[in-house]
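seq as requested:
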Amino acid sequence: MIAENRTTKVVTTMETIDSIPTPALVINAATVRCNLKRMADYAGEHKLALRPHTKTHKSIQLARMQLELGATGLTVAKAGEAQVMAQTGADILLAYPPVDRARSDAVAQLAKKHTVRVALDSLTAAKAISSAANSAQSTVGVLVDIDAGLHRTGVQSPAAALALAQDVQRLAGLRLDGLFFYPGHVWLTGDERIAALEKVDAILRETLDLWRKSGLEARIVSGGSTPTAVDSHRVTCGNEIRPGTYVFNDINCVAAKCATLEDCAARIVCTVVSDAVPGQVVLDAGTKTLTSDKCGPAPDSGHGFIKEFPQAKITKLTEEHGQTDITQCSRAPRIGERVNVIPNHICPCVNLQDAVWWEETDGSLHKWSVDARGKLS
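C-alpha cells:
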C-alpha cells in the first residue's frame, strides 16, 4: 500500500528490520516524538521561540511535526533547503550568507510569498541580497551574524555589528530584524558550559546596548545549538533557539552529555560481510553511509557506536567498508549478522540517503523520502 501527501513521499511497506536492504538508516518514531516534545516543552517553559534547524532531518514531514508542537518557524542552511521547507508554510531563516547571485535571487524570489530572513556578516552579502530583493520587488529580513566564539562566521566585535546593522537599514529591500549567533564552540558540560554561555551573553549584551544607543532594535536575538540547547536560558539576551540534531541525536550528543544512547532515534542497520582478517569484521557501511566525521568530544572513539557490541570499535572507513576491531568483544559477530550503528554525526548521514525508514511503535516500517537531500546551494 502506498500513501502520499502533497510533498513528502511516504511508502508503507511489508518489509521488516530483518529484510530491508542494508546499510539502511532507520528512525525510531517514539524516540523522535519524545525528543521533539522535550525541546518544545523547554522552549515554552523559558519563553524562547523555537526555530529548529532542518539540516538534520531534511524532511517536510518532520518539519511539520515540529511546527505542530509550537515551533515558530524553521532554520535552513541553504537556499535550496529554504525552497523545500517553504512548502510547510512556515517562515524561514537562512542561517548562511547568500553572497552569490543564484542564491540571492532564489531567496529574494521566495520572499515574494513567504517570510524569509537571512543571517549575514558582510556588507557584500547585504548588497547582494538588497539588489536581488529590489529586482524581485520583495523584502528580506536580516539578522546580523556576530562571532560568539566559534570563529567560523560573524562580525568580530559589537562595534562591527552596529556598523553592519546601520548599513542594512540603509539598503532598499532589506529589513533589519535582529542579531544572530551560534555557540557551536561550547561542548563543555556542567559549570564550564554555563560559564562559556555567560561569556556569549556578555558579547550580546554589549552589542544590544550599542544598538539601543544608536536607535536600533533587535527584535530577534537568535542562537543556540543542540549541545547547549537546554541551557539556552543562560543566554539572557537571546529569545530564539535553533537546535537541529536534537530531533535524532547522535554519538556527538552522547559524548557532550546532552543526550543518552536511549535518546538516539537514528541508527544505521548494517550487515557483517567479512571476518577473514583475525580480530576484525567488516560492515557494509563506509564513508558513503557513516561519513568520515569523528566524534568531536571523543575523536579516538571510532566511527560510530555498535549497540550490540559496545566493546567493538569501527577503526577505519573506506567507501563501502567499515573495518571493525572486535578483539575486546566477548564473542565475534558472525558473517551475515545485522548490527545497529549510531553514527557520530547524524546530519551528513541523512544527506547521503534518498530515503529513511520510519519505524513506528507497532514495528511497521514507512519509507520516507529525504526531501532536501543534496540541496547544497
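Residues 1-6 have pLDDT under 50 and may be disordered.
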